[in-house]
Structure formats: C-alpha cells, structure tokens
C-alpha cells in the first residue's frame, strides 16, 4: 500500500536545504563545478557509514586536503595519494583503501573525461534501472585495486543493495531543493532507493516489501512500489523518509500512525 498523501505532505514540509544538516550531502553544495562535485559526491557517499558525526569529520578531513578535487587528483600520483592519506582512518576504511579509490577515480576521469561520462557509457535507455550501468561503473573504479580491500565500492553483482552508491546517484541525477543534480543524461526514473537498515524498517512497516534482508532485491521491490506513485522519480521521498530517523521533531511512529489512519 502506498500512502501518497502522507508522503507528499512529508516531502513538502521537509525536503528543504535547511533540513540537510547533519548529512554528507551538504559537502556537495560547496562545489559549483560539476567536475568537482561528482568527485566530492563519490567520496562523501562512500564514507557514509557509521555515526553521522564521524562521517562528517572523515569527509571533511579528506576534502580539507584538496582545493579543487578534480585538479588535485589530476596532479596526484598513486604514491603521492598514498602519502597524503597515510594517516586517514574511518572505522574500517584505511588510508590505503581510500587513496586507492581516489586513484581509481583519477584513472577513470582520465579515460572518460568525467565520472558522468563513464557512467553514461554503461547506461542504455532500454534499461529499466541503473543497476547494469552501476555494475560497469564499479568495475571501472575498482580496476586499480589489484585484490586489495574494496569495501568502499560494493557491486550490485554480488546482491548488495549498494546503499552508498545509490545515494551518490540520487545526489547526482536528481535536482530539487535538496539534491543538486548535474548528471542530466541519466533519467531519475531509473534510480534505485538507497536502502539501509532504517529505510528497510520503514518500508517493511509501510508494506513496500516483505523481504527480511536489506539487499538488492528488497531495494528493487521498494523502488517499484514508489514508482507506482512517482513513475518519473521513484526515489523522490528518500531524503524525507530518512529524516524520520534523524530529526528530533519527527516521530517515525507518528508518521506510520498517520499512514494507517488513512488506510
């Protein structure tokens, strides 16, 4: 059952930039150039696990060592990246893994001109979702890892919901008061809900999925349900629904109660 009226009211009330903090998305607002913003988005989303305060601290630490991320990576070597981030640590992400991902971004941009163009090369308008293109995108970025840990870049091929990468795509493809957009050659209709434990719990309670695991199949089921009311923008309500677990003035149980009263 989709509760369209309740979702629209929540969107109208809370889909505003003033409600973004604390969220790693806020880092993207500091970069006007798309070539910088897409790199910032990938860094910020990749580190978006764990406590939000630590996420913001870690992302800020990485970006604080750059001016223009595009120019910084263009001028960096594999060795200089390793040296720059040798003391970095975010939970189980080491400086070596971070610097390797950054080197993968550098090589991908060198080959395609931008992350957007790399992703677009793997996307076809005949595909219902971004999943095939995301697989190709991840393969390209991970090609420099040489068997080393690559938890920052999970692949949908393994059944992962790829929450952080789908979050990155939401930021880059959608454009409204919250999501800055920029990747105009990828349709919002093809996006997949960035599924984490919180979003999975709400979706179960709303009857959007029956799957007990927050995996890729569950993400696709939930996205399909949202597509029933927003065919062109199925992840429209992702931001405001995640505010339910963050903001003190929003009670998830009250929202669910209002949905049930309309059922």
Strands ordered across the widest β-sheet: 1-2
Question: What is the alpha-carbon Rg in Å?
Answer: 18 Å
Global mean pLDDT:
94
Proportion of helical residues: 40-55%
Number of helices: 13
Q: Give the total of beta strands.
A: 2
Question: In a few lines, what is going on in this structure?
Answer:
The chain is mainly α and 263 residues long. A two-stranded antiparallel sheet has the order 1-2. It has 13 helices and two strands.
Overview of the structural elements:
This protein has 263 residues and is mostly helical. It has 2 domains: 1-19 and 193-263; 23-188. 52% of the residues lie in helices and 2% in strands. The chain has 13 helices and 2 strands. Strands 1-2 form a two-stranded antiparallel ribbon. A hairpin with a 2-residue loop joins strand 1 and strand 2. Helix 2 packs antiparallel against helix 9 and helix 7 (115-121) packs across helix 8. The radius of gyration is 18 Å and the shape is globular. The mean pLDDT is 94.
Key attributes of the depicted protein:
2 domains; 263 residues; single chain; mainly alpha
Q: How does the SSE layout of this entry go?
A:
Layout: H1 4-14, H2 34-46, H3 52-63, H4 69-74, H5 78-84, E1 89-90, E2 93-94, H6 95-112, H7 115-121, H8 131-142, H9 163-173, H10 197-206, H11 216-227, H12 238-243, H13 252-262
Antiparallel strand pairs: 1-2
Helix pairs in contact: 2-9, 5-6, 7-8
């Amino acid at each position: 059952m989709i509760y369209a009226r309740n979702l629209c009211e929540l969107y109208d009330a809370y889909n505003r930039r003033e409600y973004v903090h604390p969220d790693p998305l806020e880092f993207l607002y500091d970069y006007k150039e798309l070539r910088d913003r897409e790199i910032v988005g990938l860094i910020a989303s990749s580190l978006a696990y764990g406590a939000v305060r630590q996420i913001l601290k870690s992302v800020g630490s990485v970006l604080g060592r750059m001016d223009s991320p595009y120019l910084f990576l263009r001028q960096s070597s594999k060795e200089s990246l390793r040296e720059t981030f040798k003391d970095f640590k975010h939970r189980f992400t080491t400086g070596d893994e971070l610097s390797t991902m950054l080197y993968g971004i550098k090589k991908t941009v060198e080959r395609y001109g931008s992350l957007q163009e790399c992703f677009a090369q793997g996307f076809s308008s005949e595909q219902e979702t971004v999943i095939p293109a995301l697989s190709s995108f991840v393969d390209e970025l991970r090609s420099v890892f040489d068997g080393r840990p690559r938890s920052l870049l999970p692949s949908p091929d393994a059944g992962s919901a790829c929450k952080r990468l789908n979050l990155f795509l939401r930021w880059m493809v959608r454009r409204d008061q919250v999501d800055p957009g920029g990747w105009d050659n990828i349709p919002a209709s093809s996006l997949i809900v960035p599924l984490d434990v919180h979003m999975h719990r709400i979706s179960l309670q709303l009857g959007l999925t029956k799957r007990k695991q927050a995996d890729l199949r569950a993400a696709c089921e939930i996205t399909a349900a949202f597509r029933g009311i927003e065919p062109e923008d199925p992840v429209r309500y992702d931001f405001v629904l995640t505010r339910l677990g963050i903001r003190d003035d929003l009670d998830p149980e009250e929202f669910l109660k209002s949905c049930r009263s309309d059922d």
